[in-house]
Amino acid sequence: MARSCQDAHLLRRVAEQVWLPAPSRPRHGAAADARGAVQGHRGHAAVRRPGGHWRPGSVLRVQWEMDKATLALMRTPRCSLPDLPAAAPARRRRQAPAPTKWRKRNLSWRVRTFPRDSPLGRDTVRALMHYALKVWSDLTPLNFHEVAGSAADIQIDFSTADHNDRYPFDGPGGAVAHAFFPGDHHTAGDTHFDDDEAWTFRSSDAHGMDLFAVAVHEFGHAIGLSHVAATRSIMQPYYQGPVGDPLRYGLPYEDRVRVWQLYGVRESVSPTAQPDTPEPEEPPLLPEPPDDRSSTPPRKDVPHRCSGHFDAVAQIRGEAFFFKGKYFWRLTRDRHLVSLQPAQVHRFWRGLPLHLDSVDAVYERTSDHKIVFLKGDRYWVFKDNNVEEGYPRPISDFGLPPGGVDAAFSWAHNDKTYFFKDQLYWRYDEHTQRMDPGHPAQSPPWRGIPSTLDDAMRWSDGAAYFFRGKEYWKVLDGELEVAPGYPQSTARDWLVCRDPPADPEGADGEAGAHARPGQRDRSRSEDAYEVCSCTSIAAAAPRAAGPLLAALLSLLWTAARALAL
Fold first, then answer.
1. pTM here?
2. CATH number of the domain located at residue range(s) 106-263 in this protein
3. Tens digits of residue pLDDT in 501-543
4. Which of 141, 64, 123, 133 is nearest to 287 (CA)?
5. Domain boundaries along the sequence of the chain
6. Annotated catalytic residue: which of 218, 319, 510, 530?
7. Of 164, 216, 217, 171, which Cα lies nearest the Cα of 194?
8. Binding annotation for Zn(2+)
9. Is 530 assigned a catalytic role?
């Protein structure tokens, strides 16, 4: 028994960092987070030989090597659905958990609150919800009926921030949606979308989240389905971008099988029983596609994270931001990439000019934790996502000459802000708001960094990171020399890319990572149920991770199910 429990613990640690369905079902009424369309959320795992590596002993007798692609993939966040209930008594753990599904077949729904500032009208939103639910009812005995009254089995809301369900949203580019599993809880089946996201329909996936794709995924949770590892599944953890015409979309085979296992196959004649609540006379209609699509920028305008250098890199609120052109990528405190595709800078930080095509440097001030953006001869100061009154102002406020800077960061060792331009650097005291005497100067104090920089950043480990081209250098906290083994690849270590980076138009630059929308990969455990946030912006289609991943996932899943029984 002790060995079995130990194996379960090891498998749980692996499962938390792999694309692996949870061996046990979530508790009734729990929220499923979708990081993006799909949203939910982590990489594939491999088991190594002894010496600080996983070895599930008696459960898995085959040992595997962990390669670089595996490690990179494990840095990509996913939604952590429940694992083996660690706190449950051993006897109860050995019993198969009860399935989570609706006990009735006629379910009512309504959109309780609509998006506020959205190009999608109310009728369009209702139509997309109707057809997203129809995707599931076409295959199962379930019947969904829109109602006008306040009572509905599935309440749909567009909300922001803390909306009184213990799972707050966090603004653009963050958690985009979540749904509650069926059960006796009063929120069972309810589905919430972040109203701060840019919801789109029949639009480029680079400019927002496709509402239909996200809704299909979320309603899968609302009827009891959790995430799966299958790359073609709408229920896989990562956002896959738009899925096509709602009038013609059909579920992938993997999803059909799972929903049939839960509810059975729909008969050719639908049930005659009708709900007690009224329904609209006609289903809502989808608007016709606009004739003029010239306003949609081409995809080539969206940069690729695996190619070239970055305009700026910054740590903000403990997270890393990589800026390129009008876009940025965001990494969590654990260096998990929030989304494979970038978000638009001006949509996240309100107050930057819409025509701003790039930034020179970004950093968080140590004195008051406000965020400073520099571009050319001007700079802006932000509190959270909003620009302060009176900005932009000239960079001469810092004592900097005209012409802009190449990089800026605050060093943890002395809380001073360093500005870099060509082969010169300046040291600025944020507390006294004065440049230190003797600056500008040549030869920065850190030996081994490039003479000119693209970016610099202080990270949560206390180290300073310097970026040039496709490489970066690390200087440990308090040290004045680059750590051994550097430079290393920025794309590989930070942006989930293969080494060397691939052509931006190809798929090889991605380390087998699946696409997905969303944001902050913060897990939060409540009542033995772990909830993860999600991210936004459409991501590239998932890529197969190879025979090793397929074999390993099969073994891990079989073993986890054996332990759950």
1. 0.44
2. 3.40.390.10
3. 444 444 344 444 333 333 333 333 333 222 333 333 333 333 3
4. 123
5. 2-30+41-98+543-564, 106-263, 304-494
6. 218
7. 171
8. 79, 163, 165, 178, 192, 217, 221, 227, 235
9. no
